[in-house]
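Hey L., structure's done. Input below.
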Amino acid sequence: MARVLDLLFPRFCVACHAEGSYLCEKCSPAFSFETVPATCPFCHTSGSRSVCADCAPQVAIDGLIYAAPYADRRVRDLIHQWKFVGDRDAFEPLGKIIASRASFVLGLADAIVPVPLSTRRERSRGFNQAHWIAEMLSDASGIPLVHALTRGVHTTPRSQVDRLKRLVGDLDHVFAPRPPIPERVMVCDDVFTSGSTLDAAAKVLKEAGAKEAWGFVIAKS
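Output:
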């Protein structure tokens, strides 16, 4: 059956477009990224991955670790195939990207927390991409994964909302804490665009007792 599916829906290398897999044997060894710039995730002031002093009063999240720029076509294609097409083989190279950034979270968090999906969304998609990311990051860093958030509100996928309408604060009503809440958390999702999802999660966790809340994503737009 798998062979039939491969014939009907062939995979192509995201780097050189050779047919066969998402990363061919030739391109796989070179599939890596330089360390991304240390900047404020909101205004891009350089110097630190923490939220800058000007942005901090407006948001709850303390900083952001991301593995690659969303502008990179290879990363964008892999996330699309994994998240929206449902081909879980595309997560293998993404997992390598996540593991390569695990050292950046050491010392910042006591727990890795995935952003939860609504029951309706997770049932439709068949998995929670944030949980996969959190699990990979937890395995690579040794920091325990903790389900410290629940989600009771179904919302329109962020990818279907106009970028100009994705505002911090839009999702503040979506999440609820699930005690016990660790003091320092690293909240995981797949892509950071406006920061509304991660910031809403960070706000809830801090209101429930967390002292620090950072974000981790595969890619930042």
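The longest strand covers residues 212-220. The chain has two domains: 1-31, 34-220.

-- N.
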